[in-house]
């Protein structure tokens, strides 16, 4: 792994050549933040199987991100291939529709990455051509004091429009109390799902955890919200730090949350489509 570090934090980032045993068909390999460690208080991030030292690659840990829209998935037969942005060529081994890497874990070939690493910043870049799609992708992670910035830049180079459906998936340990997180935009739990959900919304606007829910089976919940066009700020309760904040530089197109008995995550989505030679850049910033 690569390490970004200063006097207070150390950030572990997977090596896209030597840590492929920790990578699968789901998360973007370049810029995969695997852990953030406070030099005095220990690890700050979690995961669905944490503290397993080798979690299943689909679950992972830390603060990964992923491109949901697989290239060629609509036409690929079982036994065929799809292109997963930031991962590479993936075997379609399941007939389940719509295509999901959850059911298709086999990576035929990972894309190669170039790496420029320094003590507090790292840049990883790759490119891939798959059928009529092609792209150039750059991932940058920078550590400034107690602020961690994860930035993505992608340019479409193929004949076909490049579909971008991306989300950040940071995993946090559960806070001590029921309050989990609060968003800068008003959110609600869908009324028809509120009774069976593991979450509830309190009067202060915090997403809270129901103590009697069976958390071992996990709980995924898409939140209702009215798009404002504003970036998202998240106040995340934390058992060690009290709170962590996260801020996107884009308005989320979709905002689900997920947790099990070991971890909790919010998932802000960025979505667009790029014609040939068009590019997009977006980022998420964590303050520990």
Helix content: under 10%
The main β sheet shows up as: 10 strands, antiparallel
Count of DSSP-assigned helices: 1
The chain-level structural class is: mainly beta
Shape: globular
Q: Can you list the strand order of the major beta sheet?
A: 9-10-11-12-25-21-20-14-17-16
Element-level helix/strand string: EEEEEEEEEEEEEEEHEEEEEEEEEE
What Rg, in angstroms, do the CA atoms define? 19 Å
The overall strand count is 25
Subunit arrangement of the protein: single chain
GO biological process, one term: carbohydrate metabolic process
GO molecular function: carbohydrate binding; catalytic activity
InterPro entries: Gal_mutarotase_sf_dom, GH-type_carb-bd
Protein name: DUF5107 domain-containing protein
Structural description of this entry:
With 288 residues, the protein is an all-beta fold. The protein has a domain at 179-271. 1% of the residues lie in helices and 45% in strands. The chain is built from 1 helix and 25 strands. The strands form 6 sheets. The protein has a 10-stranded antiparallel beta sheet with strand order 9-10-11-12-25-21-20-14-17-16, with no helix packed on it. A 4-stranded antiparallel beta sheet has the order 1-2-3-4, with no helix packed on it. A 3-stranded antiparallel beta sheet has the order 5-13-24, with no helix packed on it. Strand 3 and strand 4 (42-43) form a beta hairpin. The longest helix is centred in the last third of the chain and has 4 residues, at 191-194. The radius of gyration is 19 Å and the shape is globular. The relative contact order is 0.17.
């Amino acid at each position: 792994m690569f390490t970004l570090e200063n006097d207070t934090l150390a950030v572990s980032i997977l090596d896209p050549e030597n840590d492929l045993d920790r990578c699968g068909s789901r998360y973007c390999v370049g810029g995969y933040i695997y852990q953030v460690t406070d030099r005095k208080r220990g690890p700050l991030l979690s995961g669905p199987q944490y503290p397993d030292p080798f979690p299943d690659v689909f679950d992972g840990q830390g603060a990964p991100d992923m491109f949901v829209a697989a290239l060629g998935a609509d036409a690929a037969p079982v036994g065929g291939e799809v292109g997963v942005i930031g991962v590479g060529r993936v075997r379609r081994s399941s007939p389940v529709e719509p295509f999901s890497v959850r059911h298709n874990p086999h990576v035929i070939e990972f894309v190669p990455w170039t790496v420029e690493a320094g003590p507090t910043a790292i840049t990883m870049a790759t490119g891939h051509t798959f059928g009529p799609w092609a792209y150039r992708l750059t991932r940058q992670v920078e550590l400034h004091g107690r602020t961690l910035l994860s930035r993505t830049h992608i340019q479409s180079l193929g004949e076909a429009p490049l579909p971008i459906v991306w989300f950040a998936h940071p995993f946090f340990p559960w806070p001590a109390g029921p309050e989990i997180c609060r968003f800068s935009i008003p959110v609600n739990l869908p009324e028809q799902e509120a009774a069976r959900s593991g979450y509830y919304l309190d009067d202060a606007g915090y997403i809270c955890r129901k103590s009697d829910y069976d958390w071992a089976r996990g709980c995924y919940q898409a939140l209702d919200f009215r798009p404002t066009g504003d970036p998202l700020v998240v106040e995340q309760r934390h058992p060690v730090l009290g709170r962590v904040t996260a801020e996107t530089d884009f308005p989320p197109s979709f905002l689900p949350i997920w947790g099990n008995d070991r971890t909790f995550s919010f998932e802000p989505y960025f979505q667009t489509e790029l014609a040939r030679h068009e590019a997009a850049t977006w980022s998420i910033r964590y303050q520990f």
